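Notebook B, p. 112. Complex prediction, attempt 2.
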Amino acid sequence: MRVELRCCLDKFFTALTWLIIFAIIIVLLLILGPILSKGTSAVLFTDTVEFRKMQVALFSRGNEKQLFAEKNQTAAARQKVYDAIDNFKNGIDTKALTEKVRNLYRRCGQELRAKNLSNQQYTEIRAILKDIRDRLEIAFASNDKNKILENIGYVIQYRQDERFNGTSAHEFFTIAENFSKSVENTDLAKLSEYTKELQEVENLLTQLFGPRPGLPSAATAINQFGATRLDLAQSLLDKILWKEQWVTKENQKSLVKTRTSRSQGFAGTQIEPIFEYLKNDLDKMMLPKFKFYWQYFIDDSTPGHYFGGIGPEILGTLLLTLLSMVFVIPLGVISAAYLTEFSSDNLIIKIIRICINSLAGVPSIIFGLFGLAFFVLFLLPAFGFASKPCILTASMTLSILTLPVMIRSSEEAIKAVPATYKEASLALGAGKFKTFILVTLPAALPGILTGVILSLSRVAGETAPILFTGAVALGPVPRSIFDSTRTLSYGSYDMAVGDRLAMMVPHNQYGMVASLILLVLCLNAMAIILRTKLFKRLHGH
Amino acid sequence: MNLTLETKNMNEKTIKIDSKYFSKCDSVCQTESEPVIVSENFNFYYGSRAGVKNINMNISQCCVTAIIGPSGCGKSTFLRSINRMNDLIPGTRTEGKLTIYGQDIYHKNINFVNLRQHIGMVFQKPNPFPKSIFDNVAYGPRLQGIRKKSQLEAIVEKSLKSAALWEEVKDDLKKSALALSGGQQQRLCIARALATQPQVILMDEPCSALDPIATGKIEDLIAQLQNSYTIVLVTHNMQQAARVSYRTAFFCLGELIEYDLTSKIFSNPSNKQTEDYITGRFG
């Protein structure tokens, strides 16, 4: 009976252990899964012709010939949309039309004067032109359909008049005809609403397609290209097709989000069909293609990470991490060696130990401030360097942050080396120092590497200590260790704290965080492989 | 050949040991030769507790001297005093005199690092370094400043042959020493001790962690080595002492009770305590 009970308990505990292990794995997957999968979309995604344009323009990468063909193809498809909008605008944008008519009137006057007419003729024609202008202006300013048509009709009657030959006056009639055409199909009461909506649609189209061909190129890189990714394009299309509004519903105090179709808003106008067209033929206008953008890991980015990759961030993180390891490994190992092998256990050593242990619990921002005060403001000027945050100071700060971890793990590793090794070495005539260098240290190396792994992971992900000592959100690729650098951790932080542009490229945020995780994993994997190899070499199996 | 125990301070007189002690060993260790290790009223204290008391003992050259006795009787303490390994324990001190080749090894000018190169030691548990077999044996010579590969190879081969291990490991000298069996590891440790060309080899229960076959091999090895080295062997195994040693010392409670030829100790001990111990009636 007792044996059975024991077996039962044994199985129960085994099951419990497995359960906990599975639970941990599931929790890990739940946390890391979305980050990694969304981060993948920064590298594996469906791009658009705008992406290829951007790659050629900013990174001189891609097939320019093919791109030229693609540009023409998409421009033709997009032109339909632009044309429809332009035509409609001619009908509704009365302010612009008024301005246009006035300019035209002035031009015609000049042309008339140049024609060498008699004074009487000139006055006559001038009066007619003025009349046309005024009538058109009345028509543009009016909300009454009949009044408009009446005025337009008055203008049109002069169409065949030969007196206007040789001037630009015929443009008056084109404007008048176009206007009357739009007015016939348009609900004039909604005119101001149309204008507002159209402005919104046009803005969205600029985001989707980039600036209109023919217009001057935008100053910032962000505005030079449209949606570079299909998912971005589709979300913009959705915004074009559906208008989001917060409205009060009956008996409800709070605002409710509603989606209304824009094509309904423009029902009956020339604009209406373009929504359907955009929806169905987006592929023609954007030419989506599947893209494996591996250069994401080496490319520089435009400010705000709107375009491009995270190359400088990865470089900066690697530099910081490895440089801080260069500082912390010797410092940690030497300290640990002194504490374990070469010091007697007196009061001072005890105090030092307490200090090291409490150092491990100090918040990392304190280290950041210390690094700013000591390394940046004191140490660099003391050695004649410019007092500015740089990779050197950041990695020094990071190495101080992780020093306690390194000392503790090295101490444990050195203590774990069997005393018999040391005895054997001493009995062969080696001194204490040589014994440590030749026997204890190599035997402790796998354990020391464990400490390296721990500090490596800590250092790579820290943001607070490098905040003031060497990390920047924007800046050039570092050329020496006396330059400040972008890092993955600081970049992730910067993108997370309310950058307007960053909100538009969520894949970049995830990509950066996922890259950080992968980078730490890679560094750790290398250290673990090294440790395993060392262990094998030491123990022969 | 001169045994030079260099002083730490170069200004002080360098103490040299007369070469007369290095006369060729007798092929068979049956005749009494010059004493190599001489202990006169030697006391060793761990703090205030005495480890060994009043030891007077002459250990002869080219001869196996076994030290037997119950646990805690000071055998190992005495053995470790010979190469000053006890110095590592804080708070120890000595009284009396312990000389090797006429040189007081507790003289303040002795460089004990140098001393230990002349006195090899084999420990209770096989303790090869976690390095390759080659590096293990070459460790001592390298410390002495030998850097040339060919020279090191020659020393390693010679030492491994002397330790009767060459045939077993000659093909994989690059293998980790920890991959060897316990008996092989212990013979490797002996080879490592031999590589520094010591005059004296101290063995602290070298077979206590080994099985009978490995023990037999080590004992054979000791029998071979006694022709060229002065061996001091601490053992719990009285049969072993009887088998391999020429002289035997019996320690009890930190004192040397009896020291005589092995044949006499095991057949006709003069002391009652010794008789009780070797016949198993002790305590």
